[in-house]
Design a protein that fits this description.
Elements lengths: L1 H11 L5 E5 L5 H9 L4 E4 L2 H12 L9 E4 L8 H7 L2 E5 L2 H13 L4 E6 L16 H9 L4 E7 L12 H17 L8 E3 L6 H6 L4 E4 L1 H4 L2
Parallel strand pairs: 1-2, 1-8, 2-3, 3-4, 4-5, 5-6, 6-7
Helix pairs in contact: 4-5
């Protein structure tokens, strides 16, 4: 089922869009099947679960594959040390304080940690992320950190009964990215947009996503 689901996704998702397979609650065997089907971007919500799976995959035939590990869940500041040791890309940097702690922990191991800045485009109190009006100031401060590299922006749309209702929140993130480009503080085309999950990824792609985070679409179809 997993390999067939991925084949279907490959037909729908442009080559320019990275598929991050979110493996929360999934087994090592399931993740190995995902890797065997050609996906190399693995997303986890917690550092400890990612470490367990990382070690488990090392003992399989796919242990030498160039897998990129993505932190896609909320990251507590006190877990930044673990995160920088495991993840290639942290999607959920939702505050200046967290970015500064990631910078400190990355410096200790001589690493430049790739991150995405999470923006709360919907304004929901239940969601993490910078307010849109705070993004530019935070972006400039974080960009100056020596052991952090901003690779783009991330958002999570509200749960809606029709993916069309999520379009506004994806479009808002793209507009914010374009404002950053207008400031000429980073090179044009350098910032990714991580947005869209199983229920709304098609709409997110239409609005400019070049990174989508899929779990059920891969494991359940």
């Amino acid at each position: 089922m997993i390999s067939e689901n991925i084949r279907k996704l490959r037909k729908e998702v442009p080559d320019t869009v990275a598929i991050v397979c979110v493996t929360k609650g999934r087994t090592i065997d399931q993740i190995v099947e995902v890797i065997a089907a050609g996906i190399r971007d693995i997303g986890e919500n917690k550092a400890q679960e990612a470490l367990t799976k990382y070690r488990g995959i090392q003992h399989t035939a796919y242990g030498t594959q160039p897998i990129r590990w993505h932190m896609v869940g909320h990251l507590q500041t006190n877990k930044a040390k673990d995160a920088v040791r495991i993840f290639d890309l942290i999607h959920s940097v939702d505050s200046l304080h967290l970015a500064e702690e990631i910078d400190r922990q990355a410096a200790k191991i001589n690493k430049v940690q790739d991150i995405l800045i999470q923006v709360n485009t919907s304004g929901e109190e239940s969601k993490f992320g910078l307010r849109p009006e705070s993004l530019i100031e935070a972006f400039l401060i974080i960009k100056a950190l020596k052991n952090v590299s901003i690779k783009g922006l991330m958002t999570i749309a509200p749960l809606v009964d029709n993916p069309e209702k999520a379009r506004l929140y994806f479009r808002r993130l793209k507009e914010l990215r374009d404002k950053i480009y207008e400031l000429r503080v980073t090179s044009y085309g350098s910032l990714a947009l991580s947005m869209g999950m199983t229920d709304d990824y098609k709409t997110a792609i239409e609005e400019g996503a070049n990174m989508i985070r899929l779990g059920r679409a891969i494991f359940e179809g």
